[in-house]
């Protein structure tokens, strides 16, 4: 939340937010009755600060747009027809005939980024042959601000707390099973969700239709070219097994903002490749490590190989008995590691 506090918008965003004060991680095979607990987190990442908060996406977008009124011109819906990043300014031609010239274009247009393609930036991709499923549920038993992640052969099943005995669900299935589940009536979907969660939240009711999207790894080989910087999923789309996709994007925002502001203060051209490569060098290692971790975790947990299951359960149990390791993992996920951008720790640039 520190980045949003520094921007002065957290109070408005937090109206419908729910803190995550506890985490429970379990693992089981197909047909297992028991779901042994192998890893848990309790407490605060810092005094008075929970591990994380769940905030509805519409509240994040609404708070950002309201704060930007008077300083930002929103042009939508439009699409980019051509882009030219040669010369002292970049140029975008939109489908409504408008031409925009600027020192720097920031591409934050998703994992299938049109601007990345126009710039000729290649990607490293891997199709997981899985779909992510998401929905919101209300449930009989209060979650107690606890996030649950259950590892199953088909992939992880995560329940994230929302206010008023409601939770956001994100889980992984094969493409075929995802299509089958999505076509079922909501009552049947609710019963399957209850069983997948081990009935830990009692009877559930869907508040919205289940949405499905394909999962793939996509890493841009370059984050920058002259006059263009990639940000968020346009630079890196990873498996959602750790729930770090948004956090990686916020780190990009904080790092790029700091690089640009410091360059302007020094009288440098902030669209120059030498300046933009500072951002790329800052973010490249963190992104590569997180992509490797999420990819490895998905391969390790999304199977029923007995030897791998024994090894992963031993590893989870070992981490659960090492409080300093657990604390370090939480701090890194919260963006509190050394050398991070100032905005992540709530500092002004």
TrEMBL record:
Limits of the FAD-binding domain: 2-285
**UniProt KW keywords:** FAD, Flavoprotein, Monooxygenase, Oxidoreductase
In terms of Gene3D superfamilies, this protein maps to: FAD/NAD(P)-binding domain (3.50.50.60)
Q: Which GO terms describe its biological process?
A: ubiquinone biosynthetic process
Main EC class the enzyme belongs to: oxidoreductase
InterPro entries hit by this protein: FAD-bd (IPR002938), FAD/NAD-bd_sf (IPR036188), UbiH/COQ6 (IPR010971), UbiH/COQ6_monooxygenase (IPR051205)
Q: Carries keyword Cytoplasm?
A: no
Question: What GO molecular function terms would the record report?
Answer: FAD binding; monooxygenase activity; oxidoreductase activity, acting on paired donors, with incorporation or reduction of molecular oxygen
Instruction: Check the UniProt entry and state the signal peptide residues, or none.
Output: none
Tell me one Pfam family matched here.
FAD_binding_3
Q: What is its EC number?
A: 1.14.13.-
What cofactor does this chain's UniProt record say it requires? FAD
> Which protein family is named in the record?
Belongs to the UbiH/COQ6 family.
For this entry, the protein name equals: 2-octaprenyl-6-methoxyphenol hydroxylase
Q: Which organism is it from?
A: hydrothermal vent metagenome
